[in-house]
Design goal:
Aspartate Aminotransferase, domain 1; single chain; 2 domains; Aspartate Aminotransferase, domain 2; alpha/beta; 38% helix; 4-stranded antiparallel beta sheet
Length: 372
């Protein structure tokens, strides 16, 4: 589906950290935090062990806790909903836009209640959500909007990097993302106080980092100011991320090139809808999804099986958390979400993909459906 863009430079950077002897969270993490925040137009970066843990920290920094409700899209990887439960709050699912697959002010407003304490706005598959529209609804109500930018590194919103205008944004560096550290995540914010607390919480609530303590010329006795977590990133991961960050523009440009070719090829198959840029920004095409026509002669799962039988590994479209056993009984009337999760699939897209490989994918999609 997607292959990380890794080379000898990444290997050398990690090897240098190993030789240094400092492999846990340390100077490379601090360097990566600063470089990533600057690239994303954010004031501060807080590296974490995953986007899931970064999202959990964001909820805690927003004051979310037991008795609160958090609005999230069901149409997202299940971690978006799970972190709400990790914070002790209740998940409220909202439907998404039929074109972008993202929450909108209209879909959020339909499920707001006096208990709503936050909204998690996902940039699904790298398509930027309309942050300003949702904030215009939520800010006057005192409801923080947290941007789940897990898939969106390199995407833009109104001419700026996605996440630049968010109070709190969380990012993923999983191998399926454009920028990878193997595992890992980042929280970005313009609030220095929130960033400082996020760093404490990710390191057991300790008031001074282990790196600062060991680097001090004086004895430092740390204190644990609140109950925290072990959500740290290693210097090996950060070294990998620093190199990856230098490749980001080229990776995004290549994925946009591949996406445009897919769209041209699908123009010959009537009724198929492809992911595209919204009017307010540009997507990085972290995933390239297509929506089957309603009258398509083959169901989505049968189409996936047909592609697999032909040696092509595609995936179901974006999952819907409210349809999973973990969220059984969750009241949710989400017709657009249901259509996305049952009628869409994600096609292979990787940096070295050739025009011939893309042509074969589309030809097989057409062939599985049989003669018109």
């Amino acid at each position: 589906m997607i292959k990380p863009v890794l080379d000898e430079e990444e290997a050398a950077a990690v090897a240098a950290v190993v030789r240094s002897g400092w492999v846990a969270q340390g100077p490379r993490v601090a360097e990566f935090e600063a470089a990533f925040a600057a690239r994303m137009g954010a004031g501060h970066g807080v590296a974490a062990s995953s986007c899931t843990t970064a999202l959990h920290l964001a909820l805690l920094l927003a004051g979310v806790g037991p008795g609160d409700e958090v609005v999230v899209p069901s149409l997202s990887f299940i971690a978006t909903a799970n972190v709400v439960r990790h914070a002790g709050a209740d998940v409220v699912f909202a439907d998404v836009d039929p074109v972008t697959a993202n929450l909108t002010a209209k879909t959020v407003e339909m499920v707001l209640t006096p208990r709503t304490r936050a909204v998690i706005l996902v940039d699904q598959a790298g398509v930027p959500a309309d942050l300003d529209e949702v904030r215009a609804l939520c800010d006057p109500r005192g409801v923080p909007v947290i941007e789940d930018a897990a898939c969106a590194v390199g995407a833009t919103y109104k001419g700026r990097p996605v996440g630049a205008g968010a109070e709190l944004a969380a990012w993923s560096f999983h191998p399926r993302k454009l920028l990878t550290t193997g595992e890992g995540g980042m929280l970005t914010t313009g609030d220095a106080g929130r960033a400082a607390r996020g760093r404490r919480l990710r390191e057991h609530g300790m008031n001074v980092s282990a790196a600062d303590r060991h680097g001090s010329a004086r004895v430092v006795i740390e204190e644990y100011e609140e109950t925290g977590f072990n959500y740290r990133m290693t210097d090996m991961q950060a070294a990998l991320g620093l190199v990856q960050l230098t490749r980001l523009d080229a990776i995004v440009a290549r994925r946009r090139e591949l996406a445009e070719r897919y769209r041209r090829l699908f123009a010959d198959l009537p009724g198929f809808v492809c992911v595209n840029d919204p009017g307010h920004g540009t997507t990085n095409y972290q995933s390239f999804w297509i929506m089957l026509p309603d009258d398509h002669p083959v169901g989505r799962d049968d189409l996936l099986q047909g592609l697999l039988d032909a040696g092509i590994s595609a995936r179901r479209g974006i999952m819907a958390a409210h349809r999973e056993p973990a969220y059984a009984g969750t009241a949710a009337d989400l017709p657009v979400t249901d259509r996305f999760t049952t009628r869409s699939l994600i096609l292979p897209m990787f940096h070295e993909m050739t025009a011939g490989q893309q042509e074969r994918v589309v030809a097989e999609v057409a062939a599985v459906a049989g003669p018109a």
